[in-house]
Amino acid sequence: MKLILSLLLTVCAMLGILDAGYITYSETIGQLPPCQPPFACREVLESPWSHIGPIPIAAFGLLFYSTMFVLGTLSFMDVRTVAVKGIKINLVGVQALLGLSGFFFSLWLVFVMGVILQAWCLYCLLSAINCFVIFILTTSIFVHEHRQTRREGPEESYALHF
Length: 162
Known about the structure:
By secondary structure, the chain is mainly alpha-helical. 69% of the residues lie in helices and 9% in strands.
């Protein structure tokens, strides 16, 4: 079960990389992605809400999805912890926390589009749906891992050491 969930997480992260990467690239070259009514991508992507300082929010999305891709791949390979200078980091916990954070940030951005801007961007909505699916997947992996650990007892898991 965890194998399938991890694979789905990796696929969703790749789709997010494509979506956020396309918006980031379009912004970088100064050309907005095509958008048909009823969507108003131009209004959303050119609004002051579309940047944090000089950095487009899509670039942060690209970073988020790239991180989830790496974590999903490590989860698929059953790597549960990473040790950095003697400190063990639980990757499943980090993955769940990032999934939760991405979901709530997406909810905030959907609120901004719907209530403040009163304009919808197709690419942004697809990303929000993707973040919701990633949240469900990371939570499911976390619960599955927690139940498996309780059933089998604490064991030495596969780990990467740096």
